[in-house]
Specification:
five-stranded mixed beta sheet
Length: about 350
């Protein structure tokens, strides 16, 4: 069975997207860090889904001792269908969490929650549109007029950008039920997916190599795989937070360019249904599409973010009515804990 099937991707985004401001109000309160018997700061980091290659850099940092060498005792708390990262942050069950896309920090700002993105390890959101092989399809613009299978959560997320950029219309939308059969049966159909997951599934199940359009390569400005930190924790544990980011940078660099076997072993331990072929193809796509090392990271280092990218994302989404134009989008992130800052 191929892992990270379509329901996993969409459910992950939906589950992370909403948590009320009242529930998250406690995130603004700081607390001294706990330390273990060796004097290392304990940090629990909640991921956005079951262990997979898309979390590989964090597992690499854990397996290689990069966290431990910086005085940290890190526990990766695996996500899943019943896990809501903002709620874990609000309850104090974890100190840090993962954000899947730029909507999540802005949603938290819109709800009055004191949580910020402090690093972005995917410079490109892995969201793709998938089509059948067709020589007439050169770009996303060529998908105009075709039926597009979208999950409900996607209609209020990246579909907003697609309509604004390409003039796509809502009458193109067909409900995505997490079953590839409707896509496979209709040669004109288009399906949403994740670069590292659905194309591989479709190729194995359908017996053909689909046409894949990575939204980020055509200007979609969302970050992905962000580290989220409550304001209070970041304020009172700045050194530990900087150490976590620095070690994670080392982990991602090693996972992509070194021996990934130690991280893959931990991933398969946490998620026994994961298989090595899925890990291998996902890691190769992370590299070949420069999801981690491209974009702002190519200029400023892994984990980098810029105010320009956040502003671009906010302008598109607020003009489409997703957020009020008066929202202070700068409250969604901080650059203060990245290397060379502070």
């Amino acid at each position: 069975m191929i892992q990270r099937t379509p329901p996993l991707v969409t459910d992950r985004r939906r589950l992370l997207a909403g948590a009320g401001a009242l529930a998250l109000a406690g995130c603004g309160r700081g607390a001294p860090p706990e330390v273990d018997e060796a004097g290392r700061v304990r940090l629990r980091f909640a991921t956005d889904w079951l262990a997979q290659a898309e979390h590989g850099g964090f597992y690499q940092a854990l397996a290689s001792g990069a966290y431990e060498r910086r005085g940290l005792n890190v526990q990766i708390v695996q996500g899943g269908p019943g896990v809501n990262v903002p709620q874990l942050l609000a309850s104090g069950a974890v100190e840090l969490g993962m954000g899947s896309n730029s909507f999540i920090p802005l949603n938290l700002v819109n709800e009055g929650a004191p949580v910020k993105a402090v690093a972005a390890f995917f410079q490109k959101d892995p969201q793709v549109l998938i089509a059948h092989p067709d020589p007439a399809l050169d770009s996303i613009a060529d998908l105009a007029g075709r039926p597009i299978l979208l999950a409900d959560a996607s209609v209020t997320a990246f579909w907003v950008w697609l309509k604004a950029k390409y003039g796509f219309t809502d009458d193109q939308v067909r409900k995505y039920t997490f079953n590839p059969a409707p896509f496979l049966a209709d040669p004109r159909a288009v399906q949403q997916g994740y670069l590292t997951s659905e194309p591989y599934t479709i190729e194995k199940v359908g017996g053909f190599e689909p046409r894949v359009f990575l939204l980020a390569d055509e200007g979609y400005p969302s970050y992905a795989t962000m580290v989220l930190a409550p304001d209070g924790f970041a304020r009172d544990n700045a050194e530990a937070l900087r150490s976590f980011i620095a070690a994670s940078i080392e982990g991602w660099r090693d996972y992509l360019n070194g021996d990934a076997s130690v991280a893959d072993a931990l991933i398969r331990r946490d998620n026994p249904e994961m298989t090595q072929d899925v890990l291998d193809q996902a890691r190769e796509k992370l590299k070949s599409y420069a999801l981690v090392e491209g974009g702002d990271a190519a200029l400023f280092g892994l984990g980098a973010m810029t105010a320009d990218r956040w502003r671009d994302f906010f302008e598109v989404t607020s003009q489409a009515g997703v957020y009020p134009t008066t929202l202070n989008w700068r409250d969604a992130f901080t650059l203060d804990f990245l290397p060379g800052r502070g």
